[in-house]
Design a protein that fits this description.
Blueprint lengths: L5 E4 L4 E6 L16 E4 L4 E6 L8 E11 L10 H10 L5 E5 L4 E6 L3 H10 L3 E2 L1
Parallel strand pairs: 1-8
Antiparallel strand pairs: 1-5, 2-4, 2-5, 3-4, 5-7, 6-7
């Protein structure tokens, strides 16, 4: 049986910004709300509230964020899959970011109501 996860909808509209891999982490990246900063050889990606990202930065915006109410052990399996599976099967695109204690799922704000309905029907709950 798939795990049943408690989720919380975070306030605000989020965005994913893309900068050059050599760019320093900008001061606007940190602040209220969920923030994730990732760098690899190709890019520096920043997930944060949309209103903090300045004009002129490459961005994909209009995301809502769902926080998995953890913490979850690193060896606990099926946590993310149990949430993304009902969404993927219903053509809802997602973006997942993991932290030490848990996970955040981003989906387009326009899909939020439908996603909540699908997740509740799959046995998950919201706080």
């Amino acid at each position: 049986m798939a795990p049943r996860i408690r989720l919380r909808i975070l306030e605000g509209i989020y965005a994913v910004a893309r900068l050059r891999p050599s760019d320093p982490i900008p001061s606007w990246a940190d602040g209220n709300g969920f923030v994730s900063i990732s760098r690899n050889d190709d890019e520096l990606s920043i997930v944060c509230l949309r209103d903090r990202i300045p004009k002129g930065v490459q961005v994909d915006d209009g995301w809502s964020s769902l926080k998995f109410q953890g913490p979850f052990a690193f060896d606990e399996t099926g946590i993310v899959l149990s949430v993304i599976e009902p969404l993927s099967k219903n053509d809802i695109g997602i973006f997942v970011v993991s932290t030490f204690d848990g996970d955040h799922l981003l989906l387009k704000a326009s899909d939020l109501d439908r996603a909540v309905d699908l997740l509740v029907r799959a046995g998950h709950s919201f706080v």
